[in-house]
Amino acid sequence: MGKQGSHKSLRPEFQGWHSKTLLLQGLKSDSSKCNSCRGLYVGKKHIRAIVVMFGLLGCLFLLDSLIISFFEFTNLQPGTAPNNSTVFQGRDSYTYSKQSPVYMYERLLNLASSALAEKEFKQESSNLWVEPFRKASSWKPCAETKVQSNSGKPVQSNGYILISANGGLNQQRVAVCNAVAVASLLNATLVIPEFLYSNVWKDPSQFGDIYQKEYFMNTLKDDIIIEKELPPHMKSLDVEAIGSQITDADLPKEATPADYIKVVLPLLLRNGVVHFLGYGNRLGFDPLPSDIQRLRCKCNFHALKFVPKIQQLGSILIQRIRKYGARRSMLDTQLLGKFIHNNKYHEAKRGSAKYLALHLRFEIDMVAYSLCEFGGGEEERKELQAYRERHFPLFLERLKKNSTSISPMNLRKLGRCPLTPEEAALVLAGLGFKPETYIYLAGSHIYGGNSRMEPFTSLYPNVITKENLLTDSELAPFRNFSSQLAALDFIACASADVFAMTDSGSQLSSLVSGFRTYYGGDHAPTLRPNKTRLAAILRENNTIKWNRFEVRVKKMILEGQKAGIRSYGRSIYRNPKCHECMCKHH
């Protein structure tokens, strides 16, 4: 590390001030020497020397300011390494001013740091960047073929289905594909879905602002009837007044085809229209006819293409992450469309920088709702409780009525606590990822901000986000549209060489991992920590040896990568490896 007073040991922003201090000290020393000298001329020459000295000092201050400004500007330029002091702040970061870093596993972090330092100049194991089970490549996408069924596209529609989908980008995507499946099931005409405005997401985006409407309709034209709007004679109908409005209360969460035929079809036949208000995850995965299941896959993996505006900026984002190296996979083609050819540098530069995308679910709402503790002491407990009282009052009421409660310690043992940035870093270190690995962080509104990210960036300093890779002018059209910004994260995560999730229940993680399974073959590994097993490993923080920690983490991740054929009742969006979605080649 060097001596405390060493110029090189100082952070860059303080090195200029250090230089000035040395200069002033030198000037004082010289001044003392001069005072002891005899025969010094006093008069105009002395005054001129003082003026020159202050002029020189002023120039040095100006030059220092320019240098600092230059480096601050460079840190904000696209494609440069991020200034981590600004990456993680934002309206949702909820960090205390000047808060010290929060460590829960300081001993393990020190062991990880030493182990990574030893590996820095060694040849990296290539199996970190490939799917460990090569049989994955025997499954190929094939849901785009025309859905085969006895009925096919209905000759005459039973009526119109209106959808108002709630939630953010990924919840709405699931709702759209579920609506396509329901329209086919009920022989109905689907009107292009609407997206509800949410006080949480605060995004007025509609279907056509995110997805290519014409492409969506054309891809599914042989399967269901889709219209952009209701016919003129039905627009004035009060759907709620005629009893055709359906809410979550009318259908179970994992509704079956029988539920829709019993509850929805009579209304559709009677009134010619039904409106699913606040529609989301209201269609189960099994039992479901294979043609309906395949249609749901076709919608998710083929029909929903981001609009050119999103594809274009997504392409620029990927180029900058990869340092303008070219990589053209099936994943990139599906995500970026014609903008995959937008890389004007690919002829000049060979190769491509690999990167890992991490979806770190450590936002304030997730943290508060979990009821876990994260090493921040009494201040953290008070802040999280205050947040619950403001945002989750009904949740707290239910907790009070519940006679049995689980302690934060037991919640962690059960694997119910969100992984902290520190825990995520330890998993990556246990797997052997080197410190120079580029890590794209999706979302980036981390609870605690830099105080929480400090343990992570101490091991992996090359953390990048869309905010520090794209310019303000490039992001400006997306600023007030959280779903469109989320689409950029979706692209960056799905296209990554490795995707790591910290919460398997997240819709983004679920959809991204499914997309990578469908299009990635054996070149798109996904890391899924088992939080229960990881909690058991981390409880040995004070005694476990690093080599033992590595063995157990690698075993945990490897078992999570054994994604076989989709099991009954499991999400087809998360694991499309089944005969309704993919074809197995021997």
TrEMBL record:
Name this polypeptide is given: O-fucosyltransferase family protein
GO cellular component, one term: membrane
Record bears the keyword Transmembrane: yes
UniProtKB keywords: Carbohydrate metabolism, Fucose metabolism, Glycoprotein, Glycosyltransferase, Membrane, Transferase, Transmembrane, Transmembrane helix
Family the UniProt entry places it in: Belongs to the glycosyltransferase GT106 family.
GO BP annotations, alphabetical order: fucose metabolic process
Location(s) in or outside the cell: Membrane
Pfam families in the record: O-FucT
Transmembrane segments: 49-71
Domain of life, per lineage: Eukaryota
Main location: membrane
Recorded topology in the membrane: Single-pass membrane protein
Matches recorded under InterPro entries: FucosylTrfase_pln, GDP-Fuc_O-FucTrfase, GT106_glycosyltransferase
Keyword flag Membrane: yes
A Gene Ontology molecular function term of the record: glycosyltransferase activity
Pathway participation: Glycan metabolism
